[in-house]
Fold this protein.
Amino acid sequence: MESIQDGKAKFSSDYAELTIPLERIDEVDLANANAGDAKATPTDVRAWLPDGGNVTMQLTQWDAKTCTGTSPNFGTATFSPDAFARIEFNLQAPERSTPDTDNPDSDSDTPEQEGNQ
């Protein structure tokens, strides 16, 4: 995939170039042949898409209309900020947990019971 612009996706290969209207595309599965090459960096962010997919990249630019990021997996890509449901920062920081998120079914105010049960 070369680009998505003006409601069309542009694909190119050694064989041909192809432009397809987005309304005709349901899903694009990208090859992960180079996925193992990307090394995590302290400046990486993970951008989550509304469908649950995500993109990990280094943000290079962000404004009201576009955001641009780079990754060894896909090079440079430009997105609409509206494409993301949420953004994660500090990916290399240790995960933090709170009693509310550790086990949503447990009541943190109830002491643990010891003994035979």
